[in-house]
Design a protein that fits this description.
Blueprint: H1 3-10, E1 27-31, H2 36-46, E2 52-57, H3 60-73, E3 79-83, H4 89-93, H5 95-101, E4 109-112, H6 134-155, E5 167-171, H7 182-189, H8 194-198, H9 206-227, E6 232-237, E7 241-242, H10 253-266, E8 268-269, H11 270-283, E9 288-292, E10 295-296, H12 302-305, H13 307-327, H14 333-336
Bound molecules: NADP nicotinamide-adenine-dinucleotide phosphate (NAP).
Family: Belongs to the short-chain dehydrogenases/reductases (SDR) family.
Keywords: Oxidoreductase
Pfam family, one: adh_short
Length: 338
């Protein structure tokens, strides 16, 4: 993506948030709903008459406050706050039973919104207690595992009596197209495991990991679209938006002089970023490889569509399926059986 494409996208005038009862009768589960784009999205959803809004979060108190505030404004809003930490695979694996304990059996729309950006300085890899590099786990592995784990809930909603397909939304980023993808290219050429390379401490590059994690996620979702034909899979790019995502950014002199003013000048509000997500929830009735500026769009990465990019995506998809099967045996069977 060139600088001008980025600026052009950022300055595109976005339509207002979708109106009407587009969530009537629908159960929505969204991760990371207490901050930034997730928080602004749930504010939009409250006006769309959802049957149930499930905030799956790790900050329980903050999210309970959010829900209480929303319910004071929308008195008929049904909501649940449920604990989910993407840095703990057990938390994902136990979610179905915890949802059933609350009488929740179906989900119409799953929004994998939670994510992290570990910042702009060189630092060693942080490894989660599950043994994965933290950004890889939070931004790639966990949303993939969560989606498969909740698939039985989503499948129940795809009955012919209900017109729309269930939806799974992933949050992408334009940085997937500008990051240095050499480790992925090298891995494909040498027939090495991409999952293994991204979870090694040696060679870890903190400044690149966010963009690379979003590229890996995109490689996966492109393949998922071909596999999960009964479900709408959409990768939404909210654009650069002012949220808490930059909480780990170090204010170096270079960043203060050049980076921060550029970002502030071109960034959208979190509410505008959220419109990209809510527009996909309201109007995307099929799978879309990329959704940006509130409509179907295209990935700026020409590599993704190259022969090598397609080969890499297929290989990575297969690796991820094997990896989540290791973490949660049998979790992908619902798809294989479909
Ligand atoms: N803002 C942008 O410019 C931008 C651009 C492109 C894509 N995105 C994507 O948009 C999504 C939302 O980000 P945002 O900008 O709204 O950032 P944000 O304000 O920092 O919100 C991120 C959310 O993710 C949650 N989260 C982080 N780690 C988690 C974990 N281990 N388990 C459960 N929840 C976790 C956070 O919870 P806590 O509050 O508990 O930490 C928070 O609710 C992310 O996927 C991000 O990559 C953002």
């Amino acid at each position: 993506m060139t600088l001008w494409t980025f600026i052009g996208r950022q300055w595109t005038r976005l339509p207002p948030p979708p109106k009407g009862e587009y969530l009537k009768g629908k159960v929505v589960l969204i991760t990371g709903a207490n901050s930034g784009i997730g928080l602004e999205s749930v504010k939009h959803f409250c006006t769309a008459s959802p049957a149930l809004l499930i905030l799956a979060v790790r900050s329980i108190e903050a999210s309970e406050r959010v829900l209480a505030e929303l319910q004071s404004l929308h008195t008929d809003l049904k909501g649940e706050v449920i604990s989910l930490d993407l840095n703990e695979m057990e938390s994902i694996k136990s979610l179905p039973s915890r949802l059933r304990e609350r009488g929740i059996e179906t989900i119409d729309i799953l929004i994998n919104n939670a994510g992290i950006n570990p910042g702009n300085e060189a630092k060693p890899a942080e490894i989660t207690k599950d043994g994965y590099e933290k950004t890889f786990q939070t931004n790639v592995l966990a949303p993939v595992l969560l989606s498969y784990t909740l698939l039985p809930f989503l499948k129940q909603t795809s009955s012919p009596l209900i017109k729309s397909k269930p939806k799974i939304i992933f949050l992408g980023s334009g940085l997937h197209a500008t990051c240095n993808n050499q480790p992925i290219v090298d891995a494909v050429e040498r027939e090495q495991s991409i999952v293994e390379i991204f979870n090694r401490e040696e060679g870890f590059d903190n400044k690149q990991i966010y963009g690379r994690s979003k590229l890996l996620l995109h490689m996966f979702t492109r393949q998922l679209i071909e596999t999960l034909v009964d479900t709408s899979i959409i990768t939404v790019s909210p654009g650069l938006a002012i949220t808490n995502l930059g909480r780990d950014f170090k204010m170096s002199i270079g960043f203060v002089i050049f980076g921060a003013p550029f970002m502030l000048l071109n960034a959208r509000s979190a509410e505008k970023g959220a419109r990209n997500l809510t527009s996909a929830v309201a109007s995307a009735e099929q799978s879309y490889d990329y959704w940006a500026e509130c409509g179907p769009s295209y990935s700026e990465s020409s590599w993704l569509s190259s022969g090598q990019g397609v080969r890499a995506s297929k290989a990575f998809y297969k690796e991820m399926i094997d990896e989540i099967e290791k973490i949660s045996p049998g979790v992908t069977k619902a798809v294989v059986a479909s």
